[in-house]
Every structure is written in structure tokens, then in C-alpha cells.
Amino acid sequence: MAKQDDQFKKVVSHAKEYGYIFQSSEIYDGLSAVYDYAQNGAELKKNIRNYWWKAMVQMNENIVGIDAAILMHPTTWKASGHVDAFNDPLIDNKDSKKRYRADVLVEDYCAKIEGKIEKEVKKAAKRFGDAFNKEEFLSTNGRVVGYQEKINTILSRLGKSLENEDLADVKALIEELEIVDPISGSKNWTEVKQFNLMFGTKLGASADSAMDLYLRPETAQGIFVNFLNVQKTGRMKIPFGIAQTGKAFRNEIVARQFIFRQREFEQMEMQFFVKPGTQKEWYEQWKENRMKWHLSLGMGTDNYRFHDHEKLAHYADAATDIEFKFPFGFKELEGIHSRTDFDLKAHEKFSGKKLQYFDHEAKESYVPYVVETSIGLDRMFLAIFSNSLVDETLEDGSERTVLRLPAVLAPTKAAVLPLVKKDGLPEIARKIIDDLKFDFNVIYDEKDAVGRRYRRQDAAGTPFCITVDHDTLEDNMVTIRHRDTMEQQRVKIEDVREIIMKEVDMRAWLMKM
What we know:
The protein has 18 helices and 23 strands. The protein has 513 residues and is an alpha+beta fold. It starts with a helix and ends with a helix.
């Protein structure tokens, strides 16, 4: 656990030092759980968003994208159930005066048991070597099976208690597990209470006439209320999807773990409308499709897993999370839900407007069912950033810190370095930049020895460094250095663009799906 904490602190520190993420309003001591994306962070975030949008919208003929407003009519949130039921179970520790999400305390307890399972797996893998069968070990080792059964029992009870709104049993579970306050070590807990997460605001010029509104807690409702508008204007046929990216806001009382849980965040969601009775088939298909998207980035199959929900929302008939192995353990990265027809029927009821699809082949009207895929852009950013940050010991015994971002997502694709700041080398470097900048985000770097510049670009996540030296004046060639392998090639200037494009072209990465 201490090693995980150290790694996570390194991620947070590196993100600031290399211009990825700053604390919001830092000169005023910051605002808790609110962050600003800096110059490199804004580029990485944009590239992740574009990678998702291209895979989701551009690559699918039957999916279109919209950009709905953040402010919506307040009845929207009554219909969706957010006004009455968008709550987190909170518990306070009487000694430390700190507040926690009760369900997260229990999940963190289970995560520690998972850590024990991982230790057993590592020991066995070391003992058996190439003959080690992980799946067989997990299903047959008595100690591991016992650990997993304990996790399943705890999470099943937690899910049922939350579903039944039995908050007294949630507290009883915390006490039975002897869960302590992470800060004080105290077991002196209050009762568990529900807290609504929506941010309220007002619309209007005066207090007397102002309408009470909410900042949207999710982007999905903007899709549902526009279902018919999109279907008719786009002449869409079932099955079809509507995608959207955008900001959402939740008054998280227990916001923590850097950008993993924030009060202002961005979602990438797609609602797929299907004929009733086919939703399970589409649910399985979208599970497979979304996992392929994640794996296309090359961050390792062992870092992902599906976690099926023990507790289903009242409107869902299936739900799973794609979890990622963050520095603090496996946590939810993306949700895939079969939402039945709850959303459209609820908006029909509250608006008095029909939200149905006329199926010309079946010659009938019906309210479509919905399969949802929803991923947090900020969480995806953290997954990529934390997984990419590596400290390496090189063959000569020296060390380097390298941010191995997938090249397709890297904020800056190449740095152009004149060996010295004279003899016409800077001018050639500038010409190379002027040529490349139409296709890639590139930068010029002339400060310090070239070796230090390489290390700086490694740590910033730049996939390529292009060095202009005195030989360039004679042969019109440059040295291109690859971040991950540190391999250096002597290439013609006119070939540089093609070499970079081969590594960063989104087409090549998405074809891995």
C-alpha cells in the first residue's frame, strides 16, 4: 500500500511539473477537488476525446453526436429520478471529524483483500515459472478461493443493503468488518445518511422571479430529451446511437484521488436505442466493443477487467463496469448498462409528449430500450497518465523517467532540437517545424545539452526528438530518436513526416480494434 501511495504521489507531482494538471485557483490556496488542465493536459485530454469520438461516431454509420446544453428544464431531473434518488451514503468519524462514502470504505476494505490475492499470485508465479497457470491457481488455491468468497459475500451484502436503502445494515457491516478511519484509526462512526449530489443554481434577473435549476449531474439526459429530434432529422432507424461528450457536475462531499473523483468533470457517453427484446444481445456486443477500444491503446490486458453489478438500478436489467488498475487499485473506468425503456418512458410521463419510434418493418410503434456506454474522460486521462509514467534503469546504470503515452494521444508528437544555437542549425530546425506543424503538434527546444533535452522530452511524453547537427548542412539528414526504445536513426528531412505519421496516425491505432 505504501508503494502504491508513493507511485500515486509521483503521478500527481509529475502532472504538475510537466504542465498537465494544476490545482484550480492555486494562488488562492486552491479549490478542493477542482483542477485545471494545463498546456500539455489540455492537448492530451483533447486527443483522448477525439480518439473516442472517431471510434464511436465516425466509425459507426448508425451513431451520431450532439452537444446538449448544461442547463436543462428542472423537470428533466425530476423525471430522471435525480431529484429524489441521486444520493451517496455518507458516514462521519466522530474522532477525526472526517466524512466518507460508506460504500467506498467497504470497497476499499475488499480492495485490500484483493491485494492479498495478488501477492499470492506473484509468489506462485515466481515458484512455478513458465508452468504457472493463473486461472487454475485462482480457482483451486484454498487461500485465494477463501479470500474471493469473502469479497463476494461482503459486496453482495453491501449491494442488497443499498438497494433496499437499509443504511443501518451498511453501518453494521462497517462495524463487523472493523473498518477504521484511514486518518485516525478510530472505529467511532456516526449513522449512515444519504446526501444529494446535485448542484443547484438559478435562472433569472431577480430573486423573486428566478427559476431553480441544476447543473447537470450527467450528460445522458440531454440525449434522451432529444431522442425524437435526432431520430426524425437524421432519419435514423433502430438500432441507432446518440453520442455526446461534455461537462457534468456533482457536489462530491468525499472527492479524492486527484482527478479520479471531482466536482466538475467530463463524460463521454453513448445511448444506443434498440428494439425491446434485443437489448441483452446489444449489451454483450457493446461490452466487447468497448473493451477492444481500450485495448487498442496498448496498455495491457492485465490492467482491465469487467465487474458485473451486484446491485442493479431499478430501471436496469444488466450492468457492468470496465475497471482499470490505477495506482490505488482496480476502480471503475467505464460503465455499460442495459437501461430498458425507463428513461424515455419517464420523460413521456413528465412531458406529456410521446417519445416512440415507428417501426415500418414491424408496422408498430414502441418506446425503444437503451444500452448505454459511459466513460469518464478525466478518469481515462488518469488511467493513461498513471500507466505511462515509468522510472527506468538503463544498461549503463543511469536512470530516466519516461512518460510512455500512446503516441496517438501524446500532446506533442515531436521536438526539433538544433545541436547548437548557431551555424545555421536553428534556422533549419525552424523550417522543419514550419513543415510539420500542419500535421502535428511540434515544439522547438534549444536549451541545455542535447542529452538533457532528450530526458526532458522523455519525461514530457514526446514520442520523437529530431536533432539537427552540422552534418545536416551537408547531407540534408537529421537524427530521429524514438522515446520508448531510445533508438536513433539517420533519415532524410523529407522522410520525417512519414515516419512520425506511421506511429501517430489514428487510423492505424483504431484498426487494432
